[in-house]
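Action item from last week, closing it out:
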Amino acid sequence: MKTKLMLSLLFFLPFLVLAQSGKVFDNLSLPSKILKGNRKYAVYLPPDYEISQRSYPVLYLLHGGGDDQTGWVQFGEVLTIADREILAGRATPMIIVMPDANTGTRGYFNDLKGEWRYEDFFFEEFMPFVEKTYRIKGDKRFRAVAGLSMGGGGSFMYALHHPELFSSACPLSASTGPISLESAKAWLEQRNVKGTDEQIEAYYKKHSALALVEAMPDEQKKSVRWYIDCGDDDFLYEGNSLVHIAMRKKEIPHEFRINNGGHTWTYWRNALPTVLGFVSEGFHQY
């Protein structure tokens, strides 16, 4: 009898181990009419996704400049970290979606003249596709956005542009955009992007986290839960600090953390568990 029991346990052990591991697919794609071509993305599915029938909250996790949808998979070790935090009970099971913003024109925004409309693609095509394809709870409360560097800027802008869609936003080492209209003009000139004064001013007002925070109406101050994190040796430290100060002055609730480190994957891997825990608090009753 004991021998049969042991054999049964040995038979089922591999399945029990597999059931405790999530899965990552990093070479998926969808067609885009807006961007006129296929767009790649990666997705993390939590350990119990394949054995349950329930729907899950979702975290849109944005990569930085020079990476693509595989960045958080390859360098950020999202599978290992998410599995560990979920199985330890520090994060709730969630789906993590990582889009590619490095193909064609790099970045998460529409360009100055509206000829490259990545942000429109994200909200009009990508997000509806993802939330129809996977068992995702499609309510604001169960949706969050986070990212590093360029993706931190995307996290800022997406949550500031659409506070009705995200419960939490977690910019890490974020590129916060120009801190003044003059710096916006200089930034565009460096990239040989030309436009009218009206176009440049409109671009600045929409793509500067500082300008968006300072213009935020009172009724939106508590709409999004903010966790902002930047290393003390990071070259983007100033912009993040100025956004923090602006939020303090506007009395916008937020968490602001300065930790030891620079603009490195070591820093972002260390930050990811805290991000997963923070967005999980928003997904839960608290």
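Closing note: Residues 21-177+224-283 form a domain with the Rossmann fold fold (CATH 3.40.50.1820).
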